[in-house]
Amino acid sequence: MRILDSIDDELIGQLRRDHEFFWLDATDLPADEIKRLGALLDLHPLAVEDSMLFGQRPKLDTYGDTALLVLQGAVSSQPEDRNIHPLEEIHCHLSGDFIVTLHRRPYPDLARVVPLFSNAKTAKSEQYHVYKIIDVIVDSYFPMLGDLEEQINDLEDAITSGGGRRELEETFRLKRLLLHLRRAVVPMRDVFAREIEVIADLAGLEADSHDYFRDVYDHLLRINDELDADHEMVTGCTDLYLSTVANRQGETSKQLAIIASIFLPLSFLTGFFGMNFGWAVTHVFDGPWAFFGLGLGTMAISAGGMWLFFRRKGWTGQDG
């Protein structure tokens, strides 16, 4: 199989005349170049129009002997919740003579397939090459999901340790990212579940095994399951955060209640002696011992007694 990275009219024409299968991988082609490529490869005008506009939902459209497969590949970044470009839309034009992959930005995962094809010691079928290109795009989600799982675990630890608004914002960013990924994966899963046999049966595409594309479908099922599990974990983080906030509020309320309870008898004592101040200074407060012993002493005993009572009840501890 020949691998091309630019549009060479003469070479592509020669390859088509010789019915030699080739792969053209192009990045950010302008509209006129896509039109020229469509005319050179006899692509359907609707397929050319889709690749000029991009912004397509994952799908598989067949046009006679050619097909357009739109995929969304994952673009990993650290940290994932701040990834501004988590997905790359890739248009795969397929026929029995070629596979063309078009994307707006460079996609390193596709570059990893080039040595595999170039260094192959045995000839592989055309269907195998198509499978490997599709497979590497689908498998790009696994490293991202691994990073997301670690990030969610770290987020849970941070929330348990007393996380604040920053952790809550990170939780919402992760939830939005997971929903964004799921909106890309679910349509691809549906395409491979219902229509992927169309690719295996394209006219002129050397047959090998339909198991290749069933393997891609299995990978998409795993990715979808992991996305669902990660979404549940992030939802659990939200519940954990709200529970932590409620516990902190409860702890604060308990501390304020203890303080108010201690000052309640003190307020009673000061109010009682204050209202009876005239009688007290005449009959009770005779000398400093009465002020310190009877006045301050009763308040100290009252506060100490209340504190001991709370300690015995276990209300003064963090888990009380």
UniProtKB/TrEMBL annotation:
<dbReference type="InterPro" id="IPR002523">
    <property type="entry name" value="MgTranspt_CorA/ZnTranspt_ZntB"/>
</dbReference>
<dbReference type="Pfam" id="PF01544">
    <property type="entry name" value="CorA"/>
</dbReference>
<protein>
    <submittedName>
        <fullName>Magnesium transporter CorA family protein</fullName>
    </submittedName>
</protein>
<comment type="similarity">
    <text>Belongs to the CorA metal ion transporter (MIT) (TC 1.A.35) family.</text>
</comment>
<dbReference type="InterPro" id="IPR045861">
    <property type="entry name" value="CorA_cytoplasmic_dom"/>
</dbReference>
<feature type="transmembrane region" description="Helical">
    <location>
        <begin position="289"/>
        <end position="310"/>
    </location>
</feature>
<keyword id="KW-1133">Transmembrane helix</keyword>
<keyword id="KW-0813">Transport</keyword>
<keyword id="KW-1003">Cell membrane</keyword>
<dbReference type="InterPro" id="IPR045863">
    <property type="entry name" value="CorA_TM1_TM2"/>
</dbReference>
<keyword id="KW-0472">Membrane</keyword>
<feature type="transmembrane region" description="Helical">
    <location>
        <begin position="256"/>
        <end position="277"/>
    </location>
</feature>
<keyword id="KW-0812">Transmembrane</keyword>
